[in-house]
Specification:
With 575 residues, the protein is of the alpha/beta class. It folds into four domains: 2-177, 3-Layer(aba) Sandwich (Pyruvate-ferredoxin Oxidoreductase, domain 3); 197-368, Thiamin diphosphate (ThDP)-binding fold, Pyr/PP domains (Rossmann fold), CATH 3.40.50.970; 383-456, no CATH class; 461-572, Rossmann fold, CATH 3.40.50. Helices cover 38% and strands 20% of the residues. It has helices spanning 15-28, 74-80, 94-97, 111-119, 125-137, 142-152, 157-177, 198-208, 223-236, 246-258, 269-285, 312-317, 333-350, 360-364, 435-447, 449-454, 479-489, 514-519, 534-543, 561-572, and strands at 2-11, 32-38, 45-55, 66-71, 84-92, 106-108, 194-197, 213-216, 239-242, 263-267, 289-295, 326-328, 353-359, 366-369, 461-464, 470-475, 495-500, 502-504, 523-528, 549-552. An eight-stranded mixed sheet has the order 6-5-4-1-3-2-14-7, with helices on both faces. A seven-stranded mixed sheet has the order 9-8-10-11-13-12-18, with helices on both faces. The protein starts with a strand and ends with a helix.
Length: 575
């Protein structure tokens, strides 16, 4: 069982309401769910869609063919009719869009009329539509009704009851009228699954890592992290500050970190461009900070609500001067959770900036998981506080050490004066001009730390054949679609995937010789959502390896399973 539902319409028509509720129903029924959204950068109007794929097996990418298309306007029918699967059905409200269709793939369900009759208000039309879809699938309404009770509890029993009545009316209408519906959805047998998107998983990782200060200026698609944290602020004691701009945001976070608390900021590429001076400040003062950079297409404002992987080299090289940094690029919400935790640990341990490099696709896509293993989380306090400062008679914030890691005390928690400076400085933190100290400090901050940090980087994940003829390589959010494409092509070919989620410092070959996998393959392809093959260029710079070819997508949309599989078949056919 593997079905795709697409809800299309204008912004403001409730696409997210219908899609979000259906995704919850499926995940609570124990089915695996993957959702993605395609929306314009406007509050109302335009054309948007919300797509849900659900299955009794694990799914982690979107498909192009649609089994049920919920058309909330005429434009959706005209735009997406060609995507309908062989037995697919389009449901619409003919009275609302002022047009009817006689073809068997169309099912006219009067959402608004049913809502007025059953619930007394046409505003419940989306509840009717959701109930109708569940009726077409032959599913039970119990879970949906529970969700309605949760959602409308504060509005009272009357509103809750009317919505339940509307859901049942839509369900019954679909069951009676959809004679073409022959979807085979098994009854729920598995326990409910967690449904979470990339931004929420990152935010959860922030909370579980002990972060207590998050400052940012809203910028799509990173804003979801701030919104999630703000919703949990009171419960978890985290201060969430909406700064006046990104310059203030990073400097506020640096101030909080210097004061002794774990701190973070986040933005997209345009906002991060304003943070770059603060990034260098963090490096010079060795103040730990975690930065979420959630990519969207540029340059400038670009496509604010679309996806791209074009900021990799920017993040790697941003900031004047030479200094150590870490770049982590999760490919799933699960990786986002654990890598966020690792980001905080590395930032504090090595007193460096650490990036979580995500994108709109991962930020907004929802996945189902069994949950998180909190036993895997790291939480070490690397700062010197009252009890750990005992016995230290002379404190030097930037003391030269064999590892390059200096003692990091918390201001106000000891009798020591804590000094740092954005100018080059000596061990005590006072500014200097001499060449000898400059050399020692550069060696300390950069050359001594980097080898140690590199040892912490995990090698790429290998999936598929252990001796593949074909290897597809990618990073970040291409994980899911590459993994499923490997499953599809493995029926005919010896194929594997190498996925990189820890990008800088580039993982060594000590634990896993991934270059031998590539060197023994007949065809290697680098999959990226950018125009210039930025990871491919990074790979060649770091290892000398050059891919046979690249598959690049840069229209602001993610790869689909059929789209990527088709391109892979085309390249294989040239062998």
């Amino acid at each position: 069982m593997d079905y795709t539902i697409r809800i299309g319409g204008e912004a403001g028509q409730g696409l997210q309401t219908i899609g979000g509720v259906l995704a919850k129903v499926f995940s609570r029924s124990g089915f695996h769910v993957f959702t993605h959204q395609d929306y314009m950068s406007r509050i109302r109007g335009g054309h948007n869609f919300y797509q849900i794929r659900f299955s009794d097996k694990e799914v982690m990418s979107s498909r192009e063919k649609v089994d049920i298309l919920i058309a909330l306007d005429l434009n959706t029918i005209e735009t997406h009719k060609a995507a309908l699967s062989e037995k697919g059905i389009i449901i619409y409200d003919g009275a609302f869009i002022k047009k009817g269709f006689d073809s068997p793939e169309f099912s006219n369900i009067p959402f608004e009329a049913i809502a007025v009759e059953a619930g007394g208000n046409r505003i419940m039309a989306n509840t009717v539509a959701t109930g109708a879809v569940l009726g077409m699938l032959g599913m039970d309404l119990t879970i949906f009704e529970d969700i309605i009770r949760e959602r409308f509890r504060k509005k009272g029993e009357e509103i809750t009851g009317k919505n339940i009545t509307s859901a049942r009316a839509g369900f019954d209408h679909a069951v009676k009228t959809c004679t073409r519906c022959d979807f085979a959805v098994p009854k729920p047998g598995e326990p409910p699954l967690m449904l979470i998107n990339g931004n929420e998983a990152t935010g959860l990782g922030v909370l579980m890592s002990g972060c207590r200060f998050y400052s940012a200026y809203p910028m799509t698609p990173s804003t979801g992290i701030m919104v999630f944290l703000a919703s949990k602020a009171e419960k978890y004691g985290i201060v969430v500050e909406q700064a006046e701009d990104e310059i203030s945001a990073i400097n506020m976070a640096l101030g909080a970190s210097f004061a002794g608390t774990r701190a973070m900021t986040g933005s997209s590429g345009g906002g991060f461009a304003l943070m770059v001076e603060g990034l260098s400040l963090a490096a010079m003062t060795e103040t730990p900070i975690v930065i979420a950079e959630v990519q969207r297409p540029g340059p400038a404002t670009g496509l604010p609500t679309r996806t791209e992987q074009a900021d990799l080299l920017f993040v790697l090289h941003a900031g004047h001067g030479e200094f150590a940094r870490v770049v982590l690029a999760p490919g799933t919400p699960e990786q986002a959770f654990y890598l966020t935790n690792k980001a905080f640990d590395l930032a504090e341990k090595y007193q460096i900036p650490v990036f979580i490099l995500s994108d709109q696709y991962l930020a907004d896509t929802e996945w189902t998981l069994n949950g998180f293993d909190t036993g895997r989380l790291r939480h070490n306090d690397y700062r010197l506080r009252n009890e750990t400062l005992e016995g230290i008679s002379v404190y030097k914030r930037h003391r030269l050490t064999e590892t390059g890691i200096s003692p990091m005390a918390v201001p106000g928690e000891s009798g020591h004066i804590i000094v740092t400076d954005s100018d080059e400085h000596d061990e005590e933190g006072h500014m200097i001009e001499d060449a000898e100290t400059r050399i020692k400090m550069t060696q300390k901050r950069l050359l001594k730390k980097l080898p140690l940090i590199r040892q912490e980087m995990e090698p790429p994940f290998l999936y598929g054949s252990d001796r593949p003829d074909i290897v597809v390589v990618g990073w970040g959010s291409t994980y899911g679609v590459m993994k499923e494409a490997v499953d599809v092509l493995s029926r005919d070919y010896s194929i594997a995937m190498l996925h990189f989620s820890e990008l800088h410092p580039f993982p060594s070959l000590e634990r896993f010789d991934y270059l031998s996998i590539l060197g023994n393959a007949k065809l290697t392809l680098c999959i990226e959502n950018n125009a210039t093959g930025q990871f491919s260029r990074l790979m060649r710079a770091e290892t000398g390896y050059r891919f046979n070819a690249g598959i690049n997508k840069y229209d602001g949309r993610p790869f689909t399973l059929e789209g990527l599989s088709g391109e892979l078949y085309a390249h294989i056919g040239k062998l």
